[in-house]
Amino acid sequence: VVALTSTTLHSLNFPLNDSNRYTFAFALTLLFNAVCIAYYVLHGVLRERVEEILAFFAASLLTAAYSTYDYFQACSGSDECLARFIVAVSIQPVNLLFGYRIISNMSWLAYEVAGANPKTQALYNQHGRFLALAKVDWQCAVSLVILTSLSGALTETAVILSILGLWFSVWWLILAWYATRHEHRLLMYLFFVFATLQPTYTVYKFVDIAIDWSSYQGLITYPSLIL
Predict the structure, then answer these.
(1) pTM for the complete prediction?
(2) How many CB atoms lie within 10 A of CB 174?
């Protein structure tokens, strides 16, 4: 998928115009998600994180969905998009099968870190789920900014706000990791207070799109709404 996406990027003519701007946005989104998938696999296997493998499943399915939508809507049936679509979709059963086998054999590290106490193990697993969900949330936020900003779907002011929000989400993710790792209660309260900003802005955008639906019609509308 990375090789085929790189081929698509290499074939684009710069500077971008309206005909290939969507292809560029989808290609960068696929590359970013491929990096996230590689991280989930390496971190999940080496650290024996079941939640990271589950995040890998979600990211892999998201990449397949991107490739499917890109082929049928944005690429006009090009050979690179067709090959990427076939590879991304056909590899999913393999990912699920081997990922399930890996998860089935993950238990030793959790026992070594948390011990045999069921309560301690439950807290350890809860911590892993929390961080995994925070990473998936950040992945979706970055993908959304790439899709909407680079495709020309946003105004200049909206692009600036999206980039600022992305920068904020990076520090939000770091705050979540640091606060849970060091068991800092005050920082966790701060994390939960700032956590309300994202769903608030998301609800606002849904209402804004619903009010003026015709102004948001485009190739990235439905992928953005799903994210």
Answers:
(1) 0.77
(2) 11
